[in-house]
Amino acid sequence: MTILITGGTGLVGSRLLRQFVDAGVDCRALVRPGKEVPAGATRVEGDLLDAATLQQAVEGVSAIVHLAAVFRTQNDDEIWRANLDGTKKLIAAVKAHAPQARFIMASTGLVYDANATHPGLEEDETHPTLAYPASKIAAEKELRESGLNWSILRLGFVYGDGDGHLASVPPIVARFKWHPAKTFSLIHQRDVAGAVELALTGAMDGQVVNICDDAPASLYEMARLVGSPIEASAEPLVDPWMGRMDGSKLRSFGFSPKVPTVYQASREGIL
Ligand SMILES: NC(=O)c1ccc[n+]([C@@H]2O[C@H](COP(=O)([O-])OP(=O)(O)OC[C@H]3O[C@@H](n4cnc5c(N)ncnc54)[C@H](OP(=O)(O)O)[C@@H]3O)[C@@H](O)[C@H]2O)c1
């Protein structure tokens, strides 16, 4: 079984690739010019936006794990281009050259409405306005309607194995003026790999699934865990469910996180 991973140089993809290669999975990685892949993975040079490079990437694979995306920018055009146009081009390449392959796409828990009355459920209607979640919802729709064998994994805030993501919390709070009590559903890098592994068995075929651990944490707590405390606030929190997802559907497939809380990750030294 050969798997194509897109986004293999990113925070999530580089760790996923490492874990899969170490587990003996035959991995192919689509990377842009000048970028490398971990030893043991097959490098295919290309770009989501360059359709001509995608045939070689997808031919002969039994599954695609589509992680490549753009979201750490304020350039909305770039976000839409990569996340929607890029995904459309990848879907077209898979339809043409690997139509039997299982297509697993990473989406985000940020698609759920900020003023929701409960943690996001997969069947909730979503109306994201910001470019990142809106482009992901549009890409989800393309994939759901593609006729391919798809699954969509809506990831919580991914952290762990030295990715530095938790350390980005204080600057993010400052930039977006987020309330320190805002609480996010989280998922450790090792459990992203576990969830993708489960999706590769077919357990999530034709499904949208929230991927999160057992205990959300506030921005305030996350910042303290990485030794960069942020200021507390006495203001009320107006959107308590923003960033929160319900993880029961994933549990119904038999998934149990190896790292159930960020506090356990801290104790184990795997933040
Ligand atoms: N990290 C999280 O907390 C989190 C939470 C929810 C969902 N997700 C989802 O998980 C996925 C991975 O996130 P991440 O944190 O690993 O992102 P990241 O660190 O920003 O990495 C993005 C990856 O996408 C690649 N990429 C971007 N545009 C491309 C293009 N046109 N052609 C080919 N490759 C392209 C980048 O390649 P270059 O190295 O060449 O730039 C990089 O490998 C994304 O789909 C994201 O929406 C992440």
From TrEMBL:
This is NAD-dependent epimerase/dehydratase. It comes from Terriglobus saanensis (strain ATCC BAA-1853 / DSM 23119 / SP1PR4). One of its GO terms (cellular component) is cytoplasm. Signal peptide: none annotated. SUPFAM superfamilies: NAD(P)-binding Rossmann-fold domains. GO terms for molecular function: aldehyde dehydrogenase (NAD+) activity. Residues 3-212 form the NAD-dependent epimerase/dehydratase domain. PANTHER family: NAD(P)-BINDING DOMAIN-CONTAINING PROTEIN-RELATED, PROTEIN YEEZ. Pfam families: Epimerase.
